[in-house]
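Fold sample X.
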Amino acid sequence: MLTERVTDSDGSRGGRPLTLEGLEAAIRASWSLDTCDPSDAAQWTPANPSRGQCAATALVVHDLLGGLLLEAEVHRADGSPQGFHYWNRLAGVDVDLTRDQFADGEVVRAPRLIDRLPSAPWLAHDQYLTFRDRVRAALQMPARVE
């Protein structure tokens, strides 16, 4: 696990360190059906709260810690495409907080680096904004002003 301590780039944490462990706890506490990608909402359950949360989660980690964004195709057991999966690379280490979301037989293909998902609109943009603000509140950071 990454142990590097950072502070938010806008200095709003008053010098209190933001750790990956603390961010992960805030993220996991913030997942819900209303932050799930609409294409995965039918499969989201409280028992599998990371389902459909990968894009929003990867973007929030990127917002707060920087690093690289990764994208990979996901295929079902029969080889048909299921969708895409997103996660982060921080200091050369892959950090995938939603890796446990996949059903038996779903396979994540090799990743590629991406710059960023489109600013808007994209399918889960509203869910990302809700999720981002919820995580920032859990970390006691002020909401971002657009």
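Fold sample Y, listed below.
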Amino acid sequence: MSKSLLLRLIGYPALLIHGDPMVLDRWRWLKQRLPGTRNDERLLDCGCGTGAFSIGAAKRGYRATGVTNDEAAVARAQERADYLKPGFANFEAGDIRRLADRSDFQGVFEIAICLEVIEHLADDRSLMQNLAACLKPGGRLLLTTPYYHYIAVTPDEEGPRSEIEHETCGWHVRRGYTVGMLQELCQDAGMVIEEVSYCSGFLSQRLTALMRVLTRVHYLFAWAAVLPLRILPPLFDGLLTRLIGWRYYSICIEAYKPRFAPGPEAD
């Protein structure tokens, strides 16, 4: 079954179940932090890929702008948005490392999302600063990235990694992040972390490993084999992960850009 056929058959949910099983976990985490709105809040999806999260945000009432350096992904995302008509979802090809060059992005977004992206960039400090600059005072950043202490889903995740970014293969330049590392980045960018949480536990990781192995035979075979099992993580993943003491794959933060500049220090 092709992805386009699946989209025609079931609509938006097709974007969440055609690939990595952990994509649905990230959307479920994100959706809980994106209340429905009719106020046209602007949302920046940094590293939007083929648009699943931007389109989901648009369905909830946000004016979503997705940016990625992959022109083919932009075309695919816009095609999906044009078909689903979720509201306002626009996609642009651009280098997310150069957000500071976009004067039209500075201080205009109420929300910025950055899901499983920062670990691909060598200069994560600059990315976080640029995301903060794109937010209005009072704006929020929703970010997920691999947790430093995760257990590798497949052996290739253990390395070797390169500290140099790769434009096409999407390798990670670092293993992941701890709470302290993310606090450091947010503080440096002038943002305050409000909440730290985690997503993608044992079941999602095992399904992802299974899909990666079966994909070596054929993608459609892997997809069909994993599809009936995708219902399990939303129902049981959190409970089972806690019971067996497994480590979550992603660490997730909600950060806030203060509305007020720091006041003068007391004499």
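Sample Y note: The chain has ten helices and seven strands.
Also: The domain at 3-201+248-256 is CATH 3.40.50.150 (Rossmann fold).
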